[in-house]
Write a structure and sequence with these properties.
By secondary structure, this protein is an alpha+beta fold. Helices cover 70% and strands 13% of the residues. The chain is built from 5 helices and 3 strands. The protein has a 3-stranded antiparallel β-sheet. α1 packs antiparallel against α4, α2 crosses α4 and α3 packs across α4. The longest helix is centred in the last third of the chain and has 31 residues. The radius of gyration is 19 Å and the shape is elongated. It starts with a helix and ends with a helix.
Length: 104
Amino acid sequence: MSATLVPVFAALGDDTRWSILAALGEGDASASALAHRLPVSRQAIAKHLAILETAGLVEPVRAGREVRFRVLGAQLGATARRLDEIGAAWEKRLTAIRDIAESL
């Protein structure tokens, strides 16, 4: 499971890709539309979108002659659930350490 998270975190480890994902969270958009909204060239947007697509975070959708991108919530949801599991495991460990320390 953690191996599937690596490309997601690698993709999200860039401020521009975060901005693209946030913009797409407001609605589907083409690379050109995103380039008008963000201070990045269309070519750079296209490269960032390819990385987000490879990580399973966005998908292209043809709308006539235009290719628009949309966020795929399933991958984001799976990532959030995995992070919750990791957080819960750490909480359990920290509670056990606290209990041991308090019993001394």
